């Protein structure tokens, strides 16, 4: 009898444990899903860099999709060895709806640099570390110990600040200029000193339809052919495509009213130019491909990367100095230099190392414009952590 009662009790206890566990997991999944849908956009943090220098950049497009695309292209090439390319810009023609966007992006970059020259040289000082790439926006450099330069161990990883400039606020990597992005899409190693270089964002605008006198490029009137994977231009002429778009004057004189603008208006206009440039560049990159090295910051605008043996990233010996090209993102084309956010620019005390977990970060251009009077954009409110109240230095030990 006792054995029967014990057996029934153990069976009941097992069933009760399984039911309670399943209900707990279900409620936990519901709570997790509810929280993700509510706050995944509110707590976007600064993108984390690679853990080690030997780690490759993540692929924007998953590898399975890239392999499937390559197989489809190989099969279509076997089925039709010679065919005329139909879609622009792979066929050598321009995408008509992106020509105006290219001019818009170029004007936004020009306006951005003009606004930065006013803010950096007149209003807000920019500081950079003497031994590493750390940048700080403000009158007083921070005391956060994150220096990784030479002999940083002797300084307890503290930074040594000096005056910076516009190049420290926003970084535009350079690339080789392609006279013909379809007929000759690659620059070989012997041409590394003869081919012109220019900012990659300008090269993207040139390939999308912007005409600059210093950087001529070929404009076709008829599409090219693809013969067994190679581009063949069967048209004998070298005609230049006639532009039916209005010419944008890029060297317009600044209005006299701009000199009377207050500092907050200049910062707001500069910030708008930053977002306009990034939005337009992302729209162009959907059609015009941009390549970047997976181990170093090299960038090349075009269907393929160049063949210059100048990579100094991880495992470059196994590649004979060649770059490991992959699809680039907008942050590879326009590099946002993240800096620590200063809530009170007029405070005399610098940012403390013991309180660094309470400080937020933002791109240097956003931090510069915010300190000059512009409002914090919604995209970077979580990164700057403006809703976090940092304790005083003598209250750090009292906070959990």
UniProtKB/TrEMBL annotation:
Segment forming the signal sequence: 1-22
Residue ranges of domain APO in the record: 128-214, 292-378
Domain of life: Eukaryota
Pfam families: APO_RNA-bind
Keywords, in A-Z order: Signal
Presence of keyword rRNA processing: no
PROSITE patterns the UniProt entry points to: APO
UniProt xrefs under InterPro entries: APO_dom
Entry GO MF terms: RNA binding
Keyword Signal: yes
Listed name of the protein: APO domain-containing protein
Lineage, highest ranks first: Eukaryota, Viridiplantae, Streptophyta, Embryophyta, Tracheophyta
């Amino acid at each position: 009898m006792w054995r029967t009662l014990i057996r029934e009790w153990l069976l009941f206890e097992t069933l009760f444990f399984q039911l309670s566990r399943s209900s707990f997991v279900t409620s936990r999944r519901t709570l997790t899903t509810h929280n993700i849908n509510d706050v995944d956009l509110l707590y976007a943090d600064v993108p984390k860099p690679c853990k080690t220098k030997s780690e490759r950049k993540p692929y924007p497009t998953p590898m399975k999709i890239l392999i499937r695309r390559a197989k489809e292209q190989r099969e279509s090439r076997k089925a039709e060895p010679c065919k005329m390319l139909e879609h622009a810009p792979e066929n050598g023609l321009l995408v008509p709806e992106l020509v105006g966007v290219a001019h818009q992006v170029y004007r936004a970059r020009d306006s951005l640099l003009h606004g930065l020259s006013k803010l950096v040289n007149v209003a807000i000082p920019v500081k950079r570390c003497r031994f590493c790439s750390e940048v700080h926006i403000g009158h007083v450099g921070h005391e956060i110990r994150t220096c990784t330069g030479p002999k940083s161990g002797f300084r307890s990883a503290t930074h040594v600040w000096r005056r910076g400039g516009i190049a420290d606020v926003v970084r535009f990597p350079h690339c080789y200029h392609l006279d013909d992005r379809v007929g000759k899409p690659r620059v070989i190693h012997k041409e590394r000193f003869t081919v012109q270089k220019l900012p990659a964002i300008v090269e993207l605008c040139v390939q999308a339809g912007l005409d600059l006198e210093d950087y001529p490029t070929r404009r076709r009137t008829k599409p090219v052919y693809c013969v067994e994977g190679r581009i063949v231009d069967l048209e004998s002429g070298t005609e230049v495509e006639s532009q039916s778009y209005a010419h944008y004057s890029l060297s317009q004189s600044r209005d006299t009213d701009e000199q009377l603008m207050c500092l907050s208006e200049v910062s707001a206009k500069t910030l708008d130019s930053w977002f306009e440039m990034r939005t337009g560049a992302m729209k162009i990159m959907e059609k015009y491909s941009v390549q970047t090295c997976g181990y170093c910051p090299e960038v090349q605008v075009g269907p393929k990367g160049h063949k210059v043996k100048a990579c100094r990233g991880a495992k470059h010996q196994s590649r004979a100095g060649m770059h490991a090209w992959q699809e680039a993102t907008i942050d590879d084309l326009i590099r946002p230099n993240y800096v620590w956010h200063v809530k009170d620019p007029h405070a005399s005390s610098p940012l403390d190392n013991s309180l660094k977990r309470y400080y937020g970060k933002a791109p240097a251009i956003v931090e510069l414009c915010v300190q000059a009077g512009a409002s914090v954009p919604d995209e970077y409110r979580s990164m700057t952590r403006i809703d976090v109240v940092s304790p005083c230095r003598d209250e750090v030990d009292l906070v959990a």
